[in-house]
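We treat protein structure as text, and this decision shapes the records that our systems exchange. The tokens are whole numbers drawn from a learned vocabulary of local backbone shapes. One such record is reproduced below, unchanged from the form in which we store it:
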Amino acid sequence: MNPAEPLPAASLLQLIWLASPALPVGGFSYSEGLEAAVERAGVTTESIASDWLSDQLGLSLARGDLAVIAQAIAAWRAGDLSRIRQLNDWVLQTRETSELRAQAEQMGRSLVEWLRNHEGASASHTAACAALPPTYPIAFALAASPTSAGVRDCLLAYAFGWAENMVQAALKSVPLGQNAGQRILARLSREIPPAVEAAMALTDAARQAFSPMLAILSSQHETQYSRLFRS
């Protein structure tokens, strides 16, 4: 699609739908280590929570999941199932705790079940995805691939959906007020486009998952005494 042409309404609405917190994949039930960071790493103010999520976007999401999705969309569109399995395996192998792996698997399964009841991805691709079993980045790439949207727009939708879920987690766990949450979301919205551009430029060799503090906090969250979230 020519970048100068407007995205067709059907494709735009599909991306908005996939980014929506109302999508029944369970994203609202995870904090991706943020709840443990509140408990153990001093993430107790708006400023610190904003910095934490900004770092997570740039150091974790952009270098890992967004890069995988960019490559997986191209693979789904080309019908390259071998490449899809390779990318899915990479996601599984780089989830450093049982909680983070369980999140990727549960959300992936839920999205595939959603796809079974909606037009878009072919039945054969949906079945192939279900058989992996899929992680969420791979399932999201499948859901986005039938649209006429470019890879950049698909990644923007994914990243904004992630940001909305994480801000909601911050509101509940720090806790913060709604205005604080909107300020954090505004900051992340400014930082998402360059994060997406960086992700699209990554090769397999440059893609990485190295967030040791996040992994430590996620491990600690597994035995945290009082918690609201599953990760």
Q: What stands out?
A: The mean pLDDT is 95.
